[in-house]
What does this fold into?
Amino acid sequence: MTATVTSAPVTNPTTTSRPAARSVQASVSIRDALTQITTLAWRALVKMRRNPEQLVDVTAMPILFTTMFGFMFGGAISGSLARYLPTLIPGIIAMTTITSCVAAGVQLREDMDKGVFDRFRSLPIARIAPLAGPMMADLARYAVAVSVTLIVGVLMGYRPGGGVLGVAAGMVLAVITGWSLAWIFLWIGTKAKSAGAVQGMSMTLMFPLVFLSNAFVPVSTLPGWLRAVTRVNPVSYVVSALRDLMNHGALTAQVGWALLGCAAVAAMFIPLAVRSYSRRV
Amino acid sequence: MPTEGETPLGRPESSSRQAQRACPPTAHPAVEARGLTKTFGTNLAVNDIDLTVMEGEIFGVLGPNGAGKTTMLNMLATLLPIDSGEARIFGHDVRSEGHAVRQLIGVTGQYASVDENLTARENLWMFGRLQGLSSKSAHSIGDDLLAQFDLTEGAHRPISQFSGGMRRRLDLAASLLTRPALIFLDEPTTGLDPWNRSQMWGTIRNLAAQGSTIMLTTQYLDEADALAGRIAVIDRGRKIAEGTPGELKAQIGTSSLRVQMAEGADTAKAVALAADLTSDTPIVSPAGSGFSVKLSDANQAADVLIALRNHRLGIANATVEQPSLDEVFMTLTGHTSETRLPGAKASES
Ligand SMILES: Nc1ncnc2c1ncn2[C@@H]1O[C@H](COP(=O)(O)OP(=O)(O)OP(=O)(O)O)[C@@H](O)[C@H]1O
Ligand SMILES: [Mg+2]
It folds into this structure.
């Protein structure tokens, strides 16, 4: 098969710059992969900055839900708005981070149909980079969502008992939650036929997760079967953990369970998403 | 079918075909494909194609819409799984060593593959960074390429404001950041105006002169003729001919001379002269004021024109025309590329 090659001197002057016969690496080094991920995170951030309407779900939504739920249900559920806020704000924070991770899947699906992803596929880059890059940029989205909710809460009279440290810890936990759960939606994004389908499927999955939990109502008011559902719902653990941190500054077992749940979701869905993405392309 | 023993180079046909000369006599194969096949459902998009492209040459893949050009290129570029057969790029197996292959190739697809949200300069920087260039060299190499492709002016504009030709040039620039040894170009000039088209031809020749191997697809015989050292003609997923442009044209029959007679000149007499000199039956134009005649040799055009002059038969204009792609297909397959429209079922499998 291989042609015999003689080492005859090549006289053509242009051959000194011949690009051929370079050495190739068998795989991507961790360092290169990190550069690729940060480069693609940069791309996602530029995109976000140039299409600010993509930030509606992490700005307008938390404002809307916090005020709406606070003024409508505050009296009914807790007797007054001020007494409802410590229950509500961690619940809204959990809800907005989880809703904003749906966008990760929708946008991946949109991106995959675009020409630039064809080029990513033809480049010698880590297969995880086109997924992990936007995921890194999305950390900023979750941070915005959490901050906006918190600010609106404070303006409405929320005074977190956990202090600065407790609140900071709560924010970090919320961002971690958003990042971990987003892998589920990324995976859906690699599987679905269209961005609209991702949106539909994700919403169907997300609404029961958020509302069949302890996010907005005290579980004790629920009928028995629903209480059982909220107890196995992982979102309940996150909400409880957020309340413990933000309202009491307490590092409870709930926090441990919430983190463990996030780790489990990530460990399961990162490989699924990457595999499905590589196969799709 | 090309084999290792076959000379990789066609005879140089014109001074423009420098790529052939840049190719050293001891070249290795850059692309080797055996029995390459791809099926979409029941549609054999690429059917048992064998190809060898030698290092340093410009190899043209000529075929009409739906022939399987893009599908074949995508398989070679690791973008599409190979159903059966095997392919090697510089000795690396495309199926099992995709990552190695991707380090050696640059791909400019049929459709623009740059990021609409970024400016031209940002695009090049991003692709440079992704391929391991430092931030600084990604910028400087990117700027050089922008200048080279006449895009400096639009460097800071978003791609969404680019014209088709600018997009195409940026797309090619984005494939050249790491000076890949093998460049795949899928219909690099489709949609370009004549000026941009000839610019693109110049660029492609330069790349080859600098030592890159180029595999390009085209629907135009004149383009394949002008650029490629060797051409494979594919139709309905099959390779139906391969050779130097000269060999192919010899196989196809050659060009024809089209003459428009001057006002009042005796067309019938001119046609008789042309028939005598070319051993072909000239076709008189519908208006009766001109004719076209097939030439078995380009010199016959001069013979005919001289004869007209000697008989004082004035002409308004005369052109020598290359056989069109349709004529190529007519000769090679017995059907025109036109007949292969949706609904027309393939007679061969
Ligand atoms: N993803 C796909 N799914 C199903 N069929 C496909 C797909 N891609 C291509 N085909 C079919 O395979 C055949 C070859 O297509 P291909 O795009 O390779 O042609 P082409 O030679 O590049 O044509 P063109 O000049 O129009 O670009 C066509 O019949 C096309 O309909
Ligand atoms: Mg094509």
Remarks:
- Confidence is low (pLDDT under 50) at residues 1-20 of chain A.
